[in-house]
Amino acid sequence: MALPALLAACGQTTGADILNVVAWPVPQIVGMITAPSEREATWDGEATEAAPGETALRLILGSRRGIATLLQEEGERRLWRTSGGVVVATEGARVVATAGLREVLAATRFDGADPLARLAAGGDAGEGEWRGTRVVDVMRSGSDPARMRFGVRLDCRMRAGAAAEDTLLVEETCRGDARFTNRFWADARSGAVFRSEQWIGDGLPMLVVEILAMPAAAEVIPLTR
Fold first, then answer.
1. Is the four-CA dihedral 111, 113, 117, 122 of positive or negative sign?
2. Is the pLDDT of residue 44 over 90?
3. Number of other CB atoms surrounding residue 211 within 10 Å
4. DSSP secondary structure string, 22-38?
5. How confident is the model at residue 5 (pLDDT cuts 50, 70, 90)?
6. How many CB atoms neighbour CB 200 within 10 A?
7. What is the pTM of this model?
8. Is residue 223 part of a domain?
9. Average pLDDT for residues 202-216, to the nearest whole number?
10. Is the pLDDT assigned to residue 35 strictly greater than 60?
């Protein structure tokens, strides 16, 4: 089934949702097509789990949680959606755009390469420090331009170290137009991220992303070596 038709079959999908997916994988275009809805998406119950063998993420935002299944991918760029309409776009292990929330991350642009994608390129990922700059657009209202923040500049420093014998913890401390610390937990041998806590806007809790039920090792989101 074509992807727009597939989305149209979802109960709460709008024409704007379909336009978003058609514009994928360019997050800047996705962010400009629609402002956030005045009505937030719904969240799943705590007992909800992914279907056996299904490629999925568990999303936790404060006390709310949901299972997001894979809608579309192109290389390391992936689009995920919960049954209630929460959407996240990822590039590798990083969340680069969201939809269905009262505040959405509309676009992410890097000045050069994303340091998260090159952490292990120089050898031991447990040592050293990496720096990077990115600019994000955040939309807080579908009708009030004054509450839309474009060009939020973030200067970030990343450090990696052992959290346990088989686990690597990557901490990314960002300053600038917003202040926060992202955390990524990865398998120390493969570099595959299995859990993260990521900033998606000042008005929201950190978004916890957990990898669920990846059907094959090749589909695990890796820290590129």
1. negative
2. no
3. 18
4. HHTT-HHHHHHH-PPPS
5. very low
6. 22
7. 0.75
8. no
9. 83
10. no
For residue 30, the enclosing domain spans 3-45+55-217
Secondary-structure percent of the chain, ordered helix, strand, coil, rounded to 5:
15, 45, 40
Which tokens hold the place of 17?
Answer: 């949702």
Q: Number of folded domains in the chain?
A: 1
HSE toward the beta carbon, residue 215, CA cutoff 13 A: 9
**Domain membership flag for residue 50:** no
Q: Which residue bears the tokens 């398998």? A: 187
What one-character DSSP code corresponds to residue 142?
Answer: S
Residue 222 in domain:
no
CATH number of the structural domain spanning residue 170 = 2.40.360.10
pLDDT digits 0-9 by tens, 150-200? 899 999 999 988 777 888 899 999 999 999 999 999 888 878 889 999 999
Q: What tokens were used for 158?
A: 């990343």
